[in-house]
Amino acid sequence: MKKKLIIFIGVIVILFAGLYFVIDYKNNQAVNNNDNPYGDKKLEQSTIDQLDDPLYGNQIMPDELKEELDNGEDVTVYFYSPECVYCQRTTPILMPVTEDLDVEVKKLNLLEFEDQWGPYGIESTPTLIHYKDGKEVGRIVGQHTEADFEAFFDEYILK
Question: Which sign, positive or negative, has the C-alpha torsion 135, 58, 84, 91?
């Protein structure tokens, strides 16, 4: 009886170890095979899960955003976290609106770049900000409807 228990526990340990290596391999493939905008940064699992999701393309890195704003460029940025429930609900509403209106929105992942909350005055996610000539001119925070986002774009970008 004792021998069977040891064999059973051994099999369980081997299965868990195998599962760990399969998941680790899958994550490494995802990070290395996609157009990973984060470079060699060690990513959180929720970010890795979004790497091949077209809703989360067009990422902007903090240095790029700072440079664009310092150069006085117009840019619209969606500040989000992959782990934010409201972001998970908002992104599938917002991104089709941007496609329909042909508006470019860059995305900045605050889970990976936690130091970016302060410089842009982000108090919660999701936050959508439009910068004109490098200065903030419009902001919409939280979960909203398609009509709300369309009105935002009409007011700040499409006029």
Answer: positive
Q: Which residue has the tokens 């899958």?
A: 26
Instruction: Look up the pTM and report it.
Output: 0.80
Question: Can you tell me whether residue 85 is helix, strand or coil?
Answer: helix
Q: Is the model's pLDDT at 125 over the cut of 90?
A: yes
**Alpha carbons 127 and 86: distance in angstroms, whole number:** 10
Among 122, 116, 104, 114, smallest CA distance to 57 is for 104
In this prediction, residue 91 carries a pLDDT of 97
Q: Render 110-147 in DSSP notation, one character per residue.
A: TTT-GGGTTTTT--SSSEEEEEETTEEEEEEES---HH
Q: What is the 3-state secondary structure (H, E, C) of 8-25?
A: HHHHHHHHHHHHHHHHHH
